[in-house]
Design a protein that fits this description.
The complex is a heterodimer of chains A (about 80) and B (about 750).
Chain A lengths: L3 E5 L13 E5 L3 H11 L3 H7 L1 E5 L2 E3 L13 E5 L5
Parallel strand pairs in A: 1-5
Antiparallel strand pairs in A: 1-2, 3-4, 3-5
Chain B lengths: L2 H4 L20 H6 L14 E7 L5 E7 L1 H5 L3 E5 L12 H10 L4 E2 L5 E7 L2 H10 L1 E6 L6 H4 L26 E9 L2 H7 L2 E9 L11 E6 L5 E5 L4 H12 L6 E5 L15 H11 L3 E4 L2 H7 L6 E9 L5 E11 L7 H8 L9 E8 L14 H18 L4 H8 L18 H9 L2 H4 L6 E10 L5 E8 L5 E5 L7 H13 L6 E5 L16 H28 L6 E4 L2 E4 L10 E2 H6 L1 H4 L3 E8 L6 E11 L6 E11 L6 H20 L30 E6 L21 H13 L5 E2 L3 H12 L1
Parallel strand pairs in B: 1-12, 8-27, 10-11, 14-15, 18-19, 25-26
Antiparallel strand pairs in B: 1-5, 2-4, 2-6, 3-5, 7-15, 8-13, 9-10, 9-12, 13-14, 16-24, 17-18, 17-23, 20-21, 21-22, 24-25
Helix pairs in contact in B: 8-9, 11-12, 12-21, 13-14, 16-17, 20-21
Classes of the chains: A alpha+beta (about 80), B alpha+beta (about 750).
Chain lengths: ~80, ~750
């Protein structure tokens, strides 16, 4: 099973990675993904602390960082949306 | 928890309690005045807290002289920003909250707190406020979002450099964040189009308009422990934020939530609560701080005013070839990402090959904005849905058929990125098309509008205790505030699981020292997430009940099953035993292991997105410009409606607020940057005579992410009304309405423009 994933970034994150629309990252869980992102792109840390949601196959996760990243899943980073 | 138990297709479908319309547990107290709201609390020796607020939109605070106020007889404490040392440890977001609660060096909006007093009575406190001498140096201000984004606009914060640009700007500005969403090639898409429509829209700032003002009663002991009784949508979050801001230990600050007279997102932020605690700490007495209505308008968190440009292209066959929007939202005087949320939601209802949204978030000299029911989405929907309507008409297609043709569906790549799973926009549109409302005749000066709306919904952290009382009844302790009937729904869920009647179960909102952390009631999460935790807690309690029955029967627990509110022995050796009811097992709890309880904690991620379609009939008087809603219908997917009356109430409430926003509500600022209409007489929310009965149609498409298929329903219903009502007024008048609210003077002005 491959633990390499294409991670799509929302617009505000792209300047932190030189304008790329997506990154290729090795990780098995959301926690591992965030850890690797911060290692590769330290500017991500502030965003992750502020709140980043992860869409995995269209399902949006805000908190459950042990959620696995399935092989071939479409993964998007999104702002953590507040509600009213 | 097994996956099967989470799948509504595989669990109990023949509900006995869920889906009924049981009596609400807070009904009698609320209609008889027994319910305790924020200002109803009292403690021995309590003082009255009042706040001194800036009369200027933007001013440097040169000096604050409190010497005369502290000497006034009856004054027990006077505080300024000097009483709030920085405990935020470099967290800029927390510092913004602190600075919003009490100005630090600069007043950033009309009404910004600059000092506060605690005195033995209100008269003394008012006198003390007058004795505080603040020396201001008035600075240029800006309150309009487009003006704030101009290069020569007065800059509010020297530390704000636009985030999200490819290169860091060379100068500070009011443009705090840039964002982009979308996919495909919009330029190529517009070239493919047979018809392209571009429009610019504006929406004015509105307040959530909750009837109960903010109120907090705080008591801080010299030993560092503290308690607070407060009106809030999230007492755990208030506890955590207040503890951080005041340097208290969270475990020593016990916060009890009052009943809540409306919140809608406006009670998700702390405003006066840290001040009440700081006053109490300084005075060594309890302090009650209750805002006036004027303070609520001037100093709490309304929603953004916006300026939005939209461009949509389509082929003659009705296919949208490209969609683009730039959304500019002001977030008040501190950085926000409301425009970014608008950019995410703007085109979320549609299946688009080429789409791009650009967001620009700005700071202005207005109060820090807060969430308001599906925050940011109604304004974006207003702009997009009007343009959709205009494009449909321009190509000669019925607007509802145009929407159905382009509606997002399972497998659609959403405009904000991810591909959708099963979604409900199509069924709401089909239901609207087939609704009798769409076919009803219209009278003179009337127009009909319909529009769609989208919201994300979310789940969050929740925990619940289920306790069986010795007499065989059940109490529930939940940590999410009940703003829309969750105590009834949670009791229904536990009754369903245990197989007992609703009347045997009662739920209360526990204080912050009685349960683990619970996120606030926002994001349409209250019933969705809390019922999920309650179901799991009840199932855990059933495990205990089976074990106790096994002990009474002296058989293995594996040979006991729970159904219809009783333990049943199963298997060839025990099948003839008389079932043990909950009451019988509870009566022997002391002899079988002690109290019987179940607990569960969850993070209810993956709540599933939500869609709605609304239909509005409006009569607009061409002489006065006044618009009246004559008929209104809400169609929305609820997953499973646990208590249909509450679901209908959410649909109706969202629609009513949206109608007020569409027609009348508006913050009016003078040239001096001061709010001109900080009262319900001048800020006009709809009253009963302004509204027809709002019809509702609940669609029940089970949400696969909840054991009963429940979906959050609290917010989406406010997304379509601005668009639906404005399209109706457009159809009634023949003039495209592009500025919300469509107050009579604004509509008349648009009609005069048409005549010219």
């Amino acid at each position: 099973m491959s633990d390499t994933h294409i991670i799509h970034l929302w617009g505000a994150l792209r300047p932190l990675v030189g304008g790329a629309l997506f990154l290729t990252v090795k990780a098995t869980t959301i926690r591992g993904l965030f850890r690797t992102l911060v290692e590769l792109h330290p500017g991500m840390e502030a965003h992750i602390k502020r709140g980043v949601a992860v869409s995995i196959g269209g399902k949006i996760y805000r908190d459950q960082w042990d959620t696995p990243l399935p092989e071939c899943a479409e993964i998007y980073l999104l702002p953590r949306v507040p509600g009213g | 928890m097994s996956l099967d138990s989470m799948n509504p297709a595989l669990v109990e479908k023949h509900f006995k309690v869920i889906g009924t319309r049981v009596a609400r547990p807070d009904g009698v107290d609320k209609v008889t005045g027994r319910a305790r709201y924020g200002a109803d609390a009292a403690m021995p020796g309590q003082l009255v807290g009042l706040v001194l607020r800036s009369p200027h939109a933007h001013a440097q605070i040169v000096k604050i002289d409190i010497s005369k106020a502290v000497k006034l007889a009856g004054v027990k404490a006077v505080i300024t920003s000097a009483d709030f040392p920085d405990h935020t440890q470099g967290d800029r977001g927390m510092m913004d909250i602190l600075e919003n609660c009490m100005a630090r060096g600069k007043a950033l909006y009309d009404g910004h707190a600059v000092a506060a007093v605690a005195a033995i009575d209100a008269a003394t406190a008012r006198k003390a406020l007058k004795l505080i001498n603040v020396t201001y140096k008035i600075l240029p201000h800006v309150t309009d979002v487009d003006e704030a984004l101009q290069i020569h606009a007065p800059v509010l914060h020297p530390h704000i450099y636009t985030e999200g640009l490819s290169e860091k700007p060379t100068a500070a500005s009011n443009w705090n964040k840039h964002g982009e969403y979308g996919h495909g090639d919009v330029d190529a898409g517009f070239k493919e189009a047979d018809m392209v429509i571009s429009r610019s829209y504006k929406t004015e700032q509105t307040h959530q308009g909750y009837i109960e003002p903010h109120s907090a009663l705080a008591s801080v002991s010299p030993d560092g422990s503290a308690e607070m009784f407060v009106c809030t949508q999230g007492h755990f979050v208030y506890r955590n934020q207040c503890a951080t801001l005041l340097g208290l230990d969270a475990n020593k600050l016990r916060v009890t939530a009052s009943e809540i007279g409306g919140g809608f997102g406006g009670k998700t932020h702390v405003w006066a609560e840290p001040l009440a605690l700081a006053l109490s700490r300084k005075a060594n007495r309890p302090v009650k701080l209750t805002m006036s209505r004027e303070e609520v308008f001037r100093c709490t968190g309304p929603t953004s005013s916006t300026s939005i440009d939209v461009k949509i292209g389509a082929k003659k066959d009705g296919t949208i070839t490209a969609a683009w929007a730039e959304l500019r939202y002001q977030g008040g005087c501190f950085p926000s990402n409301w425009a970014e949320l608008g950019a995410m939601t703007a085109f979320a209802c549609y299946d688009l090959k080429n789409v791009k949204t650009v967001s620009k978030d700005a700071v202005v000299n207005r109060p820090k904005t807060a969430a308001y029911r599906a925050p940011s989405a109604p304004m974006a929907a207003f702009a997009v849905e009007n343009t959709i309507d205009e494009v449909a008409k321009a190509i000669g297609m019925d607007p509802i058929d145009f929407r159905i043709k382009n509606a997002a569906k399972q497998g659609t790549k959403s405009s904000y990125g991810p591909v959708y799973g099963p979604i409900g926009i199509g069924p709401t549109l089909e239901a609207a098309k087939n609704h009798p409302h769409m076919k009803a005749p219209l009278g003179k000066n009337m127009g009909r509008g319909m529009a769609c709306g989208f919201w994300f919904n979310f789940g969050g952290q929740t925990c619940v205790d289920v306790n069986v009382t010795p007499d065989g009844n059940v109490t529930i302790a939940q940590g999410t505030i009940d703003v829309g009937g969750s105590r009834a729904s949670i009791a229904m869920a536990v009754a369903e699981e245990l197989g007992v009647t609703y009347n045997q179960v009662r739920s209360i909102i526990a204080d912050t020292s009685s349960l683990g952390h619970n996120d606030m009631t926002d994001g349409s999460r209250g019933t969705f997430s809390t019922s999920k935790a309650a179901i799991f807690a009840a199932r855990n309690a059933i495990t205990v009940l089976r074990d106790r029955a096994a002990k009474i029967w002296e058989i293995p627990a594996s040979e006991v099953e729970w159904r219809d509110g009783a333990a049943h022995a199963k298997g060839v050796n025990h099948g003839n035993r008389t079932p043990l009811s909950l009451k019988e097992i509870a009566a022997q709890a002391g002899q079988t292991g002690g109290p019987i309880a179940g607990h569960a904690e969850t993070v209810a991620d993956n709540a599933g997105v939500s869609f709605a379609t609304h239909i509005a009939d409006v009569e607009t008087d061409p002489e006065t410009g006044r618009s009246l809603i004559k008929r209104y219908t809400v169609i929305q997917d609820a997953g499973k409606a646990m208590h249909p009356s509450y679901v209908e109430g959410q649909y109706q409430g969202g629609a009513a607020q949206g109608i007020g926003w569409a027609l009348n509500e508006e913050y009016v600022y003078g040239k001096d940057g001061r709010l001109q209409n900080a009262a319900f007489l001048d800020y006009r929310i709809p009253v009963c005579s302004d509204l027809p009965f709002i019809d509702t149609q609940i669609l029940e498409i089970p949400n696969p992410n909840h054991p009963y298929g429940v979906r959050g329903v609290g917010e989406t219903s406010i997304v379509p009304p601005l668009a639906a009502v404005s399209i109706a007024v457009t159809n009634a008048t023949g003039v495209r309405q592009t500025h919300i609210p469509m107050s009579p003077p604004r509509v008349l002005k648009s009609l005069k423009t048409k005549k010219k």
